[in-house]
Amino acid sequence: MRSPLDLALGRSLRNILNDQWDPIGVAADGIVDEYDSYIWPLLTLLRRKPAPTVQDVSDALLVIEREQMCWPGQANRAWAAAEALLAQRWRDSTGAA
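^ that's the sequence the OP posted. Answer follows.
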């Protein structure tokens, strides 16, 4: 079971994925859970030590787009989303970043 803090972080990550990434354009239609299956793997990446770079996170988003969604992937959008994700603090329930 996930802690309340982890659930709050998941909601924050969901918001960034919908607002900054949204490769298939569903957020404008009010669909907010389309990318939920990517939240926990991405959160694990964001908490990794040493901290991931913008390139690492952008690459992860592009892999999702290309290999899991079978979309061509848009590097500029993935990079912008990666920057937004890395601008946040992704602490776990123990307080570790």
